[in-house]
């Protein structure tokens, strides 16, 4: 996090709170087929000019 490797066991989370200015690199194994969404939980952050979806949201499709 913030460009510094995390020491110890890897963190396993389904939700990660990231404060303003913080940065995280995510590493994952895509071995579970389906459509997975990475998104911000603040509604206004996943809207573009009030239109959802958009903004801070990514969809990952695993075959």
Would you kindly provide a written description of the structure presented here, covering whatever features stand out?
This protein is 0% helix and 19% strand. The chain has a domain at 30-63. It has strands at 34-39, 57-62. It contains no helices and two strands. A two-stranded antiparallel ribbon has the order 1-2. With 63 residues, it is mainly beta.
Write the SSE topology.
Elements: E1 34-39, E2 57-62
Antiparallel strand pairs: 1-2
Can you give me a brief rundown of this structure?
This protein is an all-beta fold and 63 residues long. It is 0% helix and 19% strand.
Helicity level: under 10%
Total helices: the number is: 0
Strand order of the largest sheet: 1-2
Radius of gyration: 14 Å
Backbone structural class: mainly beta
State the major sheet: 2 strands, antiparallel
Share of β-strand residues: 15-25%
Q: How many strands?
A: 2
What key phrases describe this protein's structure?
single chain, 63 residues, mainly beta, two-stranded antiparallel ribbon, 0% helix, 19% strand, flat
């Amino acid at each position: 996090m913030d460009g510094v490797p995390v020491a110890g066991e890897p963190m396993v989370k389904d939700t990660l709170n990231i404060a303003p200015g913080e940065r995280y690199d995510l590493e994952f194994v895509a071995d579970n087929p389906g459509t997975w969404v990475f998104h911000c939980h603040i509604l206004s952050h996943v809207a573009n000019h009030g239109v959802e979806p958009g903004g801070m949201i990514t969809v990952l499709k695993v075959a």
